[in-house]
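Hi support team,

I'm filing this because I wasn't sure whether my run with phosphoenolpyruvate finished correctly. The job status page said complete, but I'd like someone to confirm that the output block is well-formed before I use it downstream. Pasting the exact inputs I used:
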Amino acid sequence: MPASVGGPRVLLRRLREVMAKPETAQKRLDEIVVLIASNMVAEVCSVYLKRSTTDLELFATEGLKPTAVHHTRLRVGEGLVGDIAAHARPLNLADAQSHPAFAYRPETGEEIYKSLMGVPILRSGRVMGVLVVQNRTKRHYTEEEVEALQTVAMVLAEVVAAAGLLDAPSELEEEEAKPFYLQGSSFAEGIALGHAVLHEPRVHVTKLIAEDTDAERERLERAVYALRGSIDDMLQTEDLSHAGEHREVLQTYRMFANDRGWLQRMSEAVNTGLTAEAAVERVQNDTRARLQRAADPYLRDRLHDFDDLANRLLRQLTGVTLSSVSEDLPVDAIVIARNMGPAELLDYDKDRLRGLVLEEGAPNAHVSIVARALGIPTVGRADEALDHVESGEAIIVDGDTGEIYIRPTQEVISSYSEKARFRAKRQEQYQAIRHEPAISQDQQRISLFVNAGLQVDLPHVAESGAEGIGLFRTELQFMIAAALPSLGDQVELYSAVLDHVGDMPVVFRTLDIGGDKMLPYMNLAQLKEENPALGWRAIRISLDRPALLRHQLRALLTAAAGRELRLMFPMVAEVAEYQRARALVDKELARLDKFGKERPSKIEVGTMLEVPALIWQLDALLPLVDFVSIGSNDLLQFLFASDRGNPRVATRYDLLSPAVLSFFRHVVDKCAEYETPVTLCGEMSGRPLEAMALVGLGFRRISMSPAAIGPVKLMVRSLDVGKLETFMEGLMKLPDGSVRPQLKAYAEAEGISV
Ligand code: PEP
Ligand code: MG
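And here is everything the job wrote out:
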């Protein structure tokens, strides 16, 4: 039985000599096949390369007819070679001709060869071609021989990738350069044209053959050790501010990183003569092939985790860092990531960051909230985006529609440039009225406020031309922190907010956690609820854990010493809950007095109206509060019994319906009766048509995202409120599910900017 001569180490050394010679790539390839054939004691050694995504071409051979080179073509999936390319896995057959996939090519003269061993030529996980050896006899190739051939194939991949092998650009390259379109979900509005930056740059291993195997083994061990340490650190500190990963993913990483088999396989690959980096890649190629074939979908899903882990190890070995710390970020960077944490996004230079694409993520995830606060157009759930884009490629992100154009055509670029110009013009219009009040044609003044929650939001308050902050979501600070913010941390943020807005009012909402807003360090996640939106959240947690709320109230009172303080409670369902929360404010005020500390110059306490039950207790509630604020996002999901986070039903019912309008009308009338100021601070107030309807119902205070202030102010200034009020009277009793068409038609006829 023939055996390979000298093993892969000798072969790799010879390959290095061939690669060092100043020759054309074709010549190199011709020499390499001879070398492999003799080392493996095979009569045939051939290299097939992918010419396009569907075709393979014989590029070099020892043993087959030389005239077949550059003539024999196979489709991916056709014959044994095509099968190897299609599935990116080796084949090892003592009797190849009896295999059902065998396809005979007479021009090659291969009919006399019985056995075949072939492996894919892979580079960074992509199939570039196939490397095959054949023998006349029914030879059984050993597992070691298959592995040796895989190692050689990796080196070949570098030869192929090096410039010069394919004189003209191959069809494959052309195909890869074709425009690619992807539909994701809109996470943050806006349009961005720019160049792709991979958040975690892919490491291309170029130095494959080791000079000193012992040194490489040591490097590998050191890198694996450091990798394990960094994962343990992340898990221990649970520094979620710097980890987009969930705890579960980190735990999976830890399990893989500590897997003895993994390290052993990489060490063995180093023993064959590869560098540490090449060994990581070589083993990852195997893992990838194995997991892709796994029947269990859970295992297939883990491939992503394993790829990430291998890439982390490669970064450890090569010193390549995350793009956010790179000095040469393009001026129009569009960052592409599998997922990330909010702090990682904040690490990017804001002046250069134009857009964000996430393969995973959720619209209410912290990173999306920060992206919206920064005004960065973001598309999420863009499945496989990373498979289709290389760093530096042109890319357009449409945060309004959730569309992504990779390598866009000239027409798409022109159309989007036009769109961007149009938006810029509108922006100018908004800027022009920034310092003007929102006063309607018939002299009704509408107060427009912004919703905020992070320090990065603060500059937008003045920029937008708002009258203050109508809703400050204090939970955001808690959500992006690594651990429960201390009293000092809270005081610092609240003081910064009050300093920043000066004389303008700010309404702080106390902690609204639970539901979809989890604090990982509080172990709320363990509390698996059937219906989290209806579960233990917001004021319910605060009343059950009063220390948390009292701490926060103390921070608010301290920050507001000598100035005005407005605060309100989320998700109150009955008057008694408001009273209990209000009593805690009084307790904290008494505490201030006891320690001789300064009180706020004025304090107003109110509540959110987010639970329908509270709307039917307004006669009891309103005399007790200084103001109320409608949280329409929650209120309407409860009113329609339709989950705001479930895409199937979230938009099923129209907010512009007789039911909602008359419900709101009831609130407005009651508040007028008790002379209690009422604001609406849900998402709907930021949409001009919805905002118009709210004004028509009698709302005079609405709070929205900063970007919406301009469009809504333009709407107000083109509106005759009295006329609209009369028109809307007729809508309330209609049987229609939606009165949007009527409102739209009205706005158009009246020339209202919506
Ligand atoms: C709301 O429910 O409308 C609201 C403003 O609160 P949040 O969106 O933070 O739940
Ligand atoms: Mg709410």
